[in-house]
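Try this one yourself first.
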C-alpha cells in the first residue's frame, strides 16, 4: 500500500470532512447490550501468522506462494460454509504475468445481511525500503504486512464456526496487493500497480451482484506497540463505520490501540473495494508518526519478520472485530 499523493483527493477529503455529519453518540448504546462475542485467542492467531511465514515469502509465481494458498484454502474449508478460489492472471507493473488466487470464505450463507472482512495474503517481492541496497531485490517475510491480517481473520473464522453470528460474514484473502511498482527502480510512475487482487475481485465478484453493507480491511495489525488511527480513505468513504469500530475498541478496553486521530489517506485494498465494488470499507492499519512513510519502520524491509509480532496487538484488533461482528443483528 502507498500513501496517496493526489491533490484532488486531498481537496475532496477536506470538503468531505467539512461536511461530515456528526455521528450520533448513541450508536454503540443500542448495540452494546447485545454483545456476546467469544474470546479471541491470540495464541491461535499468532500460530496462524507463523504458519504463513514458515512457507517463506508468499511472492506470486513462487513455490511458497502455491503452498501457502493450499494451506489457507484447506484451513478455511474447516470453518466456512463455502470456500471460493478465484484464479486469475495479474499483469504486474514490470510485465510479469502473475498466477494469482483470491480466497473467499463464506459464513452464514443464507443470511442476506452481510459484512465483508479482508486482508492480503501475498508478501512483497522487494525490501525496497531497506537501508542496504543489496537487500532491495530480496523478498520479505511480510509477517506483519500481510500475514498478521490473515492470521487474525483465520482466528475469527475459527470463532465463527464455533458460534455462528446473526449476520452473514465473508472473509477474503486478496492476492497480489504488494507487487506494486518498486521504489528502488526509479521508473516513471504508473497508476494502479498495487492491490491487483482486490481490483480484480471488485470487477469480478465471486457471486454476481454480491453486496455487503460494509467492509473492514486488516493490514499490519500485529506489530508490538502498534496503534491505529482514523485513516483518510476510510474516513472519506465510511465515516460511520470508522466511528463505530473505534467506539467498540474503546468500550472493549483497547482505546490505547485505536486513537481518536485522523491521518492521511493510503491506497490499500479498501480503496478499490470502495471505488470499484462500491462497498463502504475501512482500513485498520498501523500508523507511525515517526517515519516518512507513516508506516512502521519495518515496512518493506527484512525487519518485517516474526520478531516484531506481538500477541497483545493481535488480541486488541481481533477482539474488537469479533465484538463488532457479534453486535450485528
Ligand atoms: Zn506492503
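Now uncover the answer:
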Amino acid at each position: 500500500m502507498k500513501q496517496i499523493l493526489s491533490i484532488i483527493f486531498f481537496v475532496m477529503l477536506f470538503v468531505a470532512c467539512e461536511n461530515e455529519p456528526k455521528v450520533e453518540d448513541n450508536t454503540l448504546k443500542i448495540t452494546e447490550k447485545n454483545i456476546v462475542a467469544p474470546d479471541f485467542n491470540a495464541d491461535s492467531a499468532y500460530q496462524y501468522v507463523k504458519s504463513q511465514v514458515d512457507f517463506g515469502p508468499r511472492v506470486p509465481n513462487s513455490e511458497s506462494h502455491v503452498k501457502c494458498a493450499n494451506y489457507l484454502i484447506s484451513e478455511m474449508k474447516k470453518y466456512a460454509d463455502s470456500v471460493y478460489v478465484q484464479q486469475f492472471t495479474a499483469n504486474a507493473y514490470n510485465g510479469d504475468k502473475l498466477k494469482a488466487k483470491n480466497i473467499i470464505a463464506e459464513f452464514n450463507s443464507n443470511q442476506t445481511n452481510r459484512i465483508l472482512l479482508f486482508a492480503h495474503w501475498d508478501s512483497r517481492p522487494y525490501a525496497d525500503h531497506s537501508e542496504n541496497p543489496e537487500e532491495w531485490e530480496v523478498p520479505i517475510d511480510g509477517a506483519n504486512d500481510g500475514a498478521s491480517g490473515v492470521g487474525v481473520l483465520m482466528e475469527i473464522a475459527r470463532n465463527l464456526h464455533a458460534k455462528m453470528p446473526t449476520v452473514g460474514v465473508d472473509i477474503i484473502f486478496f492476492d497480489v496487493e504488494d507487487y506494486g511498482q518498486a521504489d528502488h527502480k526509479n521508473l516513471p510512475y504508473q497508476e494502479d500497480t498495487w492491490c491487483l487482487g482486490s481490483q480484480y475481485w471488485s470487477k469480478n465478484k465471486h457471486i454476481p451482484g454480491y453486496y455487503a453493507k460494509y467492509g473492514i480491511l486488516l493490514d499490519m495489525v500485529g506489530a508490538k506497540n502498534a496503534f491505529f488511527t482514523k485513516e483518510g480513505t476510510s474516513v472519506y468513504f465510511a465515516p460511520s463505520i470508522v466511528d463505530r469500530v473505534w467506539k467498540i475498541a474503546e468500550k472493549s478496553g483497547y482505546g490505547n490501540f485505536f486513537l481518536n486521530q485522523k491521518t492521511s489517506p493510503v491506497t490499500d485494498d479498501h480503496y478499490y473495494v470502495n471505488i470499484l465494488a462500491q462497498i463502504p470499507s475501512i482500513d485498520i492499519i498501523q500508523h507511525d508518526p515517526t517515519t516518512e512513510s507513516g508506516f512502521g519502520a519495518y515496512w518493506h524491509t527484512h525487519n518485517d519478520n516474526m520478531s516484531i509480532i506481538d500477541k497483545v496487538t493481535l488480541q486488541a484488533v481481533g477482539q474488537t472485530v469479533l465484538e463488532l461482528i457479534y453486535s450485528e443483528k
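Discussion: Residues 10-34 have pLDDT under 50 and may be disordered. Residues 2-327 form a domain with the Aminopeptidase fold (CATH 3.40.630.10).
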